[in-house]
TrEMBL record:
It comes from the Bacteria. The keyword Transcription regulation applies. PANTHER family: HELIX-TURN-HELIX TRANSCRIPTIONAL REGULATOR, ICLR FAMILY, HTH-TYPE TRANSCRIPTIONAL REGULATOR RV1719. Pfam families: HTH_IclR (PF09339), IclR_C (PF01614). It comes from Caldinitratiruptor microaerophilus. This is Glycerol operon regulatory protein. One of its GO terms (molecular function) is DNA binding. SMART domains: HTH_ICLR (SM00346). Residues 9-77 form the HTH iclR-type domain. InterPro entries: GAF-like_dom_sf, HTH_MetabolicPath_Reg, Tscrpt_reg_IclR_C, Tscrpt_reg_IclR_N, WH-like_DNA-bd_sf, WH_DNA-bd_sf. One of its GO terms (biological process) is negative regulation of DNA-templated transcription. May be an activator protein for the gylABX operon. Residues 78-254 form the IclR-ED domain. Keywords: DNA-binding, Transcription, Transcription regulation.
Amino acid sequence: MAVDRQLTIQAVDRALAVLLLFAEPPVASGDGRGLGVTQIAERLNLAKSTAHRILSTLEARGFLRQDPATGRYHLGLKALELAGAYLAQSDLPTVAYPEMVHLRDEVEETVSLYVRDRGDRVRVQKAEGRHGVRRVVGLGQRLPLHLGASGKVLLAFTPEPERSRLLEALERQHGIDIIAFRQMLDKVREQGYAVSAEEREQGVASVAAPIFDRSGQLVAALAVSGPVQRFDEAAIVRYSQAVREAAHRIGVLL
């Protein structure tokens, strides 16, 4: 029996869209309590019966699990296996981690590694800070490029004309002032690092630097982040030097 290719692709696309809902921040995806069939159907504009079939299939394959007490769905162990496979197969998070731990021990703040995926940045490795009050981050989190030090770095060191295309998209989607934003990116390229304070998240500051491979290609952004009150002028000077040195060492190892 022949299978309609368009319908098959649509089914895959819908299943992936369901999985991606669980990757959104907890507040958006149900305060960490999982998602119900009705929520998912409404969010994705699906018939409830269609959403239920997709959820049942993903549960059967281990990508989702259903809480018998609430009926809500959560990510399953297969999703974790995929994340583990990515980390095992990608040189960057593995090579970067020891240097990230060294940097974390030096500055005592949370260290994160970001890569650009189209118009977003994604956290692919982390080393959480030593302080009792610290920045707690999750792997795989997708964040905007125009907010935060890491996003600025990834934009600033992206070659033209790709940078222009990204800035035009950000102007359409978020209404940024391209002229002012370009001037800020020029400063980031000149000094070799970027700083942000409470741009995306209240009470959080960060300092980030680019990681280049041996051919000089931008591969990632390395960031130190923590409570804004610990990022005074003296701390930013120290952190910017430390994060640039760590980024350089990671680039050499790559």
